[in-house]
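Continuing the batch. This is chain 6 of the set; chains 1 through 5 are on the previous pages. Same settings as before, nothing changed between runs. Recording input and output for traceability.
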Amino acid sequence: MNSNLSLQTHCFRDADLCASMFHEWGVQFRQLQPKPFQGVVSKMQMEGLSIGRIVTNCTVEMIGEKPQDSLAFGIVLETHGSPHFAHGTPLHPYCIFGFNPQRETNLVSSTAGLAVVVVEVKQQRLRSLAHQLGHHDLDDAFFQRNIVAVSPAQMDIYSGYLRQIVYLMDHHPHCLQTPDMLRLIQGDLLPLLINALSQANRPPSPLRRADIIAIAQNYMTANLHRPITLTELSKAVCVSRRSLIYGFQDLFGMGPMTYLKQQRLNGVRKALLTGNSQYEPVTNIAHLWGFHSLGHFARDYKLLFGESPSDTLRQTQ
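Output for chain 6:
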């Protein structure tokens, strides 16, 4: 393999383990849809440039920090089912999203699963190239927009090029390991991205209740380990119970209390798969994450992940 190229593809049976392919980001993946999880992450890394493809078979939430010295540009590969959302904003096929380095990753996949490609490039490299190509408007103020809608024609060219690379990653990885192919990708991909960004249109609007959902999520995160009622949550967010329910249904396809339970179940699973959990009873971990009816906990855990907590625990032994 060419020494300037790192090319890898991994399959996962756990959503959060997918995040290990992006360890430098500090992101987490949380499974929200009940079924046995299947995920594939492919990543092609060159000097100052990487291309990552993430595909899952169910709804997931991707949250966390991004590298501060890089810009990350994502596109949705598939649009089956409900839309993908970035920071509560629905992403249509002509959106490029996620490249404000000061804003954390916040992505919710469609009901059909996550299907995105992310290009990550060093900030200085992209800015220098943009200036060389005469696109001086791609400055700090532009990138703070985070989501950009581009012209269909430019998006088709850019996404089509990425799809060709993904196809080679899946079916002919040896073709990507030649110096000529690396030079071609390095020379073509970023100009195509810059041309697409330079023809930006008005971005889509966020969901009407996106702000209150974000406040509710922050409250949940701060109180994950103690009982919370819907009434308490609605009072903390200063909205009606009905508005809270409708907001979570629009974004996640579930009510706020179901969403809270899924977050806690993901927390239990992560605890079982990491640390010294094999020396601590499952019941203690469940109690720590706010589950006090062990029968209901075991049932809900198996419904979400397709296996019992003890089955998960055995994977670490």
